[in-house]
């Protein structure tokens, strides 16, 4: 008997991923606490991801931030990031080099290392009750903002995440800068404002980063948020690698 051919979402290519200089990004991450990539996605690819926002079937939940005092604005978690080929490709292909960075941090933070593929991390999350996908699309209009926070979601925490800017700052929106605050033990906290261009990604720590001091490495807790959007619409894709409980 003939079996129906399983439908597969088409493979997508993201040429810019091949050209990323990971040692450079790792150096930038350690220097600044945040690494900004060259443009990862074309304008058309950004538009394609923004377009998914209006397809309710693709999302497992919608969070209206003001209901929880998270800030103001709305974000949606993808039900199955694999259903959106670009999101799947980004999460799968960015994971191995980010695991390479995370595994260099591991002994500096006194923490665990991570498997080389996303599938293995996702399987481990599932074994620990973290089965809900975490990639999300954040949609902010005039006056919307995000309070400083961390994206933890369970006991298994992959230490780095990436957010990709899908709009063109200055043209599609103004304001809405990304804000990072690094808590430096025994010193004053440091704020960092990052303004990625369309298609660029920001790689940053989920909860802390190692910083070398006089007595070896110390953990610097980091939180991130978004300054209020002044005009227009600002959409970003957040890729967190561990799943949620
Ligand atoms: Fe976040």
Helix and strand succession? HHEHEEEHHEEEEEEEEEEE
- Domains counted in the coordinates: how many? 1
Just give the CATH class: Mainly Beta
Q: How would you describe the shape? A: globular
Tally of DSSP helical segments: 5
| CATH structural architecture | Sandwich
Strand content: 25-35%
Alpha-carbon Rg, integer:
18 Å
Fraction of residues in H or I helices = 10-25%
For the record, what is the CATH homologous superfamily label?
q2cbj1_9rhob like domain
* Spatial ordering of strands, largest sheet: 1-11-7-15-5-4-2
At CATH level 3, the topology is Jelly Rolls
The parts where pLDDT drops under 50 for at least 5 residues are none
Largest sheet: 7 strands, antiparallel
Cα distance spanning the termini: 41 Å
* Small molecules bound: fe (ii) ion
**Class based on secondary structure composition and strand pairing:** alpha+beta
């Amino acid at each position: 008997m003939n079996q129906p051919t399983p439908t597969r979402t088409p493979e997508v290519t993201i040429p810019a991923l091949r050209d990323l200089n990971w040692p450079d990004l790792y150096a930038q991450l350690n220097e600044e606490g945040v690494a900004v990539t060259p443009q990862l996605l074309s304008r058309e690819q950004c538009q394609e991801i923004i377009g998914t926002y209006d397809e309710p079937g693709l999302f497992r939940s919608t969070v209206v931030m003001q209901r929880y005092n998270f800030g103001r604005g709305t974000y949606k978690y993808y039900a199955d990031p694999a259903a959106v080929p670009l999101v799947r490709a980004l999460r799968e292909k960015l994971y191995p080099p980010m695991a390479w960075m995370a595994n260099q941090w591991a002994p500096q933070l006194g923490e665990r290392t991570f498997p080389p593929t996303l599938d293995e991390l996702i399987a481990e999350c599932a074994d620990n009750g973290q089965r809900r996908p975490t990639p999300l699309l954040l949609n902010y209009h005039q006056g919307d903002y995000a309070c400083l926070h961390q994206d933890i979601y369970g006991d298994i925490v992959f230490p780095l995440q990436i957010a990709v800017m899908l709009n063109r700052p200055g043209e599609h929106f103004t304001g809405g800068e990304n804000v990072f605050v690094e808590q430096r033990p025994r010193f004053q906290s440091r704020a960092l404002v990052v303004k990625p261009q369309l298609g660029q990604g920001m790689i940053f720590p989920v909860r802390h980063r190692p910083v070398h001091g006089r007595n070896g490495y110390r953990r610097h807790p980091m939180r991130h948020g978004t300054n209020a959007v002044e005009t227009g619409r600002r959409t970003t894709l957040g890729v967190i690698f561990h799943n949620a409980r």
